[in-house]
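tool_call: predict_structure(chain=1)
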Amino acid sequence: MTNEAGRKRISILGVPVDAVTMTAAVQTIDAYIAGGSPHLIVTPNAEIIYRAQRDKELAAVLRQADLVVPDGYGLVWASRHRRQPLPERVAGIDLMHNLLQLAAAKHYRVFLLGAEPEVITAAVEKIRSDYRGIDLTGYQHGYFTPAEEPAVLTRIAAVRPHILLAGLGAPRQEKWLHRYYRKLGVPVNIGVGGSFDVVAGKLDRAPHWMRQAGLEWLYRLGREPKRLRRMLALPLFAAAVLAGAGDKEEKANE
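tool_result:
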């Protein structure tokens, strides 16, 4: 399976995932910015792809995205089970940092959307400190009401960012971006989940060795026991992959 750009894609539970490395993902996004037209990038993990089995709107968003990168070792494992291995995990937070580095080097304008008011403010300060010369053209916390949404859209469009990083939580951020990214006209629109909380120091990432071993989910569960209910999707995802769920949809689309 390939996408419109000719990149190889692996179907996991009926969701196409691009077989890209971190380097290739950044290069693709850089090309999107150079092209100027709006693009949607999503970074699903096993939980999100399993959720898409019952959430038709989310499934449609994932399938229509321009770039789908595998944020999670569950997807890498699933691709290997299908004997169509993805080259590596492309973690959303690491992709975000790579894009911030790219933006600082090439003077791309960046807008941050999401998190609590004090968190996004702290994240902005940290990013400006870590990425000297970066053009953070604006930011907005994620606790805006439906009535305030038009003003938020106007504010983003007015500063014409090259990159919109939306930390609204999945799947809200994916659905929100899909609804508005063409209207906004931003070349790169990507959901970054709780990355702003990590940048601001509110949350810690797992130690490097745990990330390398594919155990970041266990670390996060230990730090946030309330995630247990969400983590129950992981064994269900594995069971669905082993049962061959999604194969019928893939054959129908061939």
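agent: The chain has one domain: 9-74+90-201. Proceeding to next step.
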